[in-house]
Design a protein that fits this description.
By secondary structure, the chain is an all-alpha fold. The chain is built from 16 helices and 2 strands.
């Protein structure tokens, strides 16, 4: 057992070390529009502090973004109406479409050395959770499961997380939220503080990617449906704490939308991204050929298995994951936009939650399950 834990721990650390070496060589001018747009948000925070939430193109009076566009050879660098990642608003502003969280994190780091440290920090958090899972495992199969998930999670911090700066912090929050979700459900009396903290984390993830708001859907269903059925005050308080946590921590995005689009509920995204739901078989085909499909299959398979074989809180965790998976998969398959990381956050949040829920089973339940699985000892039988 100790040898297996050591082996999987070293594998995770080796992948982490390889990632750090690769990340240290990354360029912040690789010609990707998203990259320089996130860096523009960071630059605004560094120049104006909290007022950097205002991303109007007229604030590029120091020609920072124009310079970034020239670096990547963008032909229309001088015309803000043609800038990538920017959209005209009804109030006359031309603003960044992204929520402010990724730019805020980048702004905490010195200009020119912002991206590698962000990814390294997020990778350290993910690897730390992976090592924690390995340490918690009490059987050889659980060590293998925790080790394989940990190795996969650390590897994903480069591919596909490199595709967008917003993915790295999202992945770190999903790992922590998965751990806390399992911890919340394993307690005899579910902690209001824990569910509020989970809400804060998932709400904070919205500041990195707006679709991350869907990560909270399974929790709302898990708490909302029983409340409608039982009218339980305890469930109401849990739901209130969770919802308040989500709203409080996504406040920067709501404020940014109010400043840039004129209303907290108005989106800064353009019409190409705001589309009516419509199933597109071409998009489905792209998912089927992508690594995201493998992750979703793992998440769905693990959920079904734990619903059939799990006990107590393990089944509760699986129910939370069911709600999350259904809402997120339906949403992303019904929007004709495809990227190599869209469903990665929900897949990883699901896998982390299920893994830690399995690892946190009460000792007596683990022992009982172990006895049921072990073959009978013939010497112990009466002769």
């Amino acid at each position: 057992m100790k040898i297996a834990k050591l082996a999987f721990g070293l594998i995770c650390l080796a992948i982490l070390a390889s990632n750090i070496v690769a990340m240290s060589r990354w360029s912040e001018a690789r010609g990707v529009y998203d990259d320089i747009c996130y860096l523009r948000q960071a630059h605004l925070f560094q120049r104006f502090g909290a007022d950097g939430l205002n991303t109007d193109a007229v604030r590029d009076d120091d020609r920072y973004f124009e310079g970034k566009l020239k670096e990547i050879g963008y032909a229309d660098w001088s015309n803000p109406r043609l800038w990538p990642c920017h959209n005209p608003m009804s109030n006359g502003k031309i603003v960044l479409q992204y929520p402010p969280g990724t730019g805020f994190l980048l702004a905490l780091l010195p200009e020119g050395q912002q991206v590698p440290p962000l990814y390294v920090a997020a990778s350290l958090i993910v690897c730390g959770l992976a090592l924690l899972g390995i340490a918690m495992a009490r059987t050889l199969p659980s060590v293998a499961g925790a080790g394989l998930l940990g190795a996969l999670a650390v590897y994903l911090m480069v591919n596909p997380a490199k595709a967008s700066y917003s993915v790295a912090p999202t992945m770190a929050l999903c790992a922590v939220a998965g751990f806390l979700t399992a911890l919340w459900l394993t307690r005899d009396k579910r902690s209001v503080v824990l569910i509020a903290l989970i809400g804060l984390l998932l709400g904070a993830s919205v500041n990195f990617r707006l679709p991350n708001a869907l990560l909270a859907s399974g929790y709302l269903l898990f708490l909302g449906i029983p409340f409608l059925w039982t009218r339980s005050l305890a469930i109401f308080v849990q739901g209130l704490a969770f919802g308040a946590g989500v709203l409080v921590s996504m406040a920067p995005t709501l404020v940014a939308q109010a400043v840039n689009a004129g209303s907290a509920l108005a989106t800064t995204y353009g019409s190409a991204d705001v589309v009516a739901p419509a199933f597109d078989f071409a998009v489905l085909g792209q998912y089927l050929r992508d690594m995201q499909f493998v992750l979703i299959v793992l998440a769905i398979g693990s959920t079904v298995w734990l619903l059939r074989t799990g006990e107590g809180h393990v089944r509760q965790a699986a129910l939370v994951v069911v709600g999350n998976l259904v809402v997120n998969i339906v949403f992303f398959l019904s929007h004709p936009i495809f990227t190599p990381y869209y469903v990665v956050p929900i897949a990883m949040l699901s896998l982390w939650t299920l893994s830690f829920a399995r690892l946190m089973r009460p000792a007596e339940a683990r022992e009982a399950a172990s006895v049921c699985r072990e073959p009978a000892n013939l010497e112990a039988l009466p002769r």
